[in-house]
Amino acid sequence: MAADDKHDAAMKDATEAVNDIMVQYQKMGLNALTLMGGDLAERMSDMGAEMLDFFTKRVKADVELQHKLLHCRDLNEMQHLQAEYMQLAINHYTEESSKMFEMGTAFWMNGLSSLPPKK
């Protein structure tokens, strides 16, 4: 068997193995989702949307800083812009971590009560 054929066979075997593992994980995950119910799935979706909003806000702040830095006229202005940016980042991350903590607490505390009782 040529080296290319051995490589192709090994890649096929590896791909099939990974595919089998992913199928098993999906089956396990889908069963877990049926136990969670719509309320927990909705809370997870809300948390994901909140994180995406946060990432969008941070990227926008990054782009705005770069634009301002390109147009600043002296070193003092640059330092001022960077200080403002750092304070804004600290505020954003502090605010977001509080939101995510609250959402996570509600998810686990309120969400667990919606799970069906164990049989």
TrEMBL record:
<dbReference type="Pfam" id="PF09361">
    <property type="entry name" value="Phasin_2"/>
</dbReference>
<dbReference type="InterPro" id="IPR018968">
    <property type="entry name" value="Phasin"/>
</dbReference>
<feature type="domain" description="Phasin">
    <location>
        <begin position="24"/>
        <end position="106"/>
    </location>
</feature>
<protein>
    <recommendedName>
        <fullName>Phasin domain-containing protein</fullName>
    </recommendedName>
</protein>
